[in-house]
Amino acid sequence: MATRAELSEFLASAERRAFKHAVFAVRDDEAALDLVQDAMFKLAEKYADKPAAELPLLFQRILRNLITDHFRRQKVRNLWTTLLSSLLPESDEDSDRDPLETLDAQGTGEAAESAADQAERGQIMAIIEAEIRKLPARQREAFLMRYWEDMDVAETAAAMGCSEGSVKTHCSRANHALAAALKARGITL
Hints:
70% of the residues lie in helices and 0% in strands.
């Protein structure tokens, strides 16, 4: 059974990574923040009695389900909006806005790092994020869980509801796609 301190510590450590994960999935900062907050509330409300070791997997599963639910609601909402918009007079308002998420470049020794190095690192991170966004959903999800969340193959498979072999395949394909995309842009890591 996780103590309040363990639960709080887990939520604090998972907050930023979970937000990134949600932003990559839904491509909307505000919706991503809502999803992460809902996942945190649900974990604290329904699963606080679970052992601390189970919290990361439970949290990932909750977040994944909330993201799926978000897309289902959005699909229904868009269907009705499209159907009803044909009945309304046309408006001049253009709401086709695709907000791009930016990453705060974080690292150690930023004070000693030159402005040019910080700018270059920021540009590279933006390119990497853009390439991650282009990955198919399952590849992106597996990649983020394995390499950004530091989950092992078994935990990722359980969170994604698939086999360990599928996780390995998704991660491999994501790695190859990212490596090829970055190489095409002249970036070697």
